[in-house]
Amino acid sequence: MNDEDVLSQKFKIKGGDFGKAGRTSTSIKEILKEIGIDHSIVIRASIAVYEAEMNVVMYAKRGMVTLNITPEKLHLKLEDEGQGIADIDQAMKEGFSTATHEMREMGFGAGMGLPNIKKNADRFKITSISGKGTTLDIIFCLNKTESK
Amino acid sequence: MTLREIKELLHAEVITGEDSLDIEIMFAGGSDLMSDVLAFGKPGILLLTGLSNTQSVRTANIIDAKAIVYVRGKHPDKEGIKLAKEMGIPLLSTKLMMYATCGLLFSHGLPGVSDLF
Asked: I want to staple B34 with a disulfide (CB 3.0 to 4.6 A). Which of A50, A53, B13, B59 is the partner?
């Protein structure tokens, strides 16, 4: 944790645990509300982290969310260990999905997750190594002039 | 339109949130796909869905939905109801199908989320 951080917290996500899927995002939303982050940013960040959490649950073995808040920005980093994404450009296309029937029954897996995260974030970076895992950096500017 | 008026219009059963029926609902949106709800949903929405697992409740919480109406007689499980109680999200269930539910609400003046945003 850097000196300038207002808050820094880590959350573990278990892959394949559909029953608990979404718990981390619910907790993060509560934290953001409690510390008084602007409501529209709370909603956008909650949507982005929920989609990202569902991706970890659906596709990875395990993952970690790191929430870092400074006066300037809210940074959500999601790192997972799992199959990774072979073709990121393809994965970013709306409607592209490799979801199973079980995932679709949960109401997810329609190929909207990553595009939805990108749409909500002010800055979004995705890196992945096929067979190892994926890292997402989802950033929201808390300075109103830079924010969406 | 209040949630109570919606309940009567849809002949819906209140699963939880009996004391919140006087809240005002300004618009609604329907989908069984939670990613779509996360993409089009706006705070204050009345969520109409046939997806009755706990993810419907979590999705409603994430987007600050006012309430959920389950269509086709769907009911969430105990875990979903418990979660909705904790989060203060009223849950209703109607035997009507999605098309009829949306049509009835729309024809009685409740706009869709896409009409407003």
From this structure: B59
Residue A118 backbone phi and psi in degrees, to 5: -60, -40
Domain residue ranges of chain B, discontinuous segments joined by +: 3-110
A29–B55 C-beta distance less than 8 A: no
Q: Report the Cα–Cα distance between both ends of chain B, in Å, rounded.
A: 18
Q: Which residue in B has a C-alpha nearest to residue A115's C-alpha?
A: B39
Give the residue extent of every domain in chain A. Answer: 7-141
CA distance B57 to B52: 8
Could you give phi then psi for residue B98, rounded to 5 degrees? -55, -45
Cβ proximity of B63 and B81 under 8 Å: no
> Of A47, A106, A119, which is closest to B55 when you measure between CB atoms?
A106
Nearest CB neighbour to B38, from listed A21, A51, A106: A51
ipTM computed for the complex:
0.91
Residue A112 to residue B54, Cβ atoms within 8 A: no
Q: Domain A7-141 class?
A: alpha beta
Contact B14, B84 (CB under 8 A): no
- Mutation choice for A interface testing from B62, B71, B113 by most A CBs within 10 A: B62
What is the spatial order of strands in the sheet that B13-16 belongs to?
B13-16, B91-93, B67-70, B46-49, B28-30
Instruction: For chain B, state the CA radius of gyration.
Output: 12
Q: What angle do CA A56, A59, A61 make, to 5 degrees?
A: 70
Report pLDDT digits (tens) over A6-60: 899 999 999 999 888 999 999 999 999 999 999 999 999 999 999 999 999 999 9
**For residue A103, what are its two tokens?**
């995932």
Q: Given an 8 Å threshold on Cβ–Cβ distance, is A107 in contact with B51?
A: yes
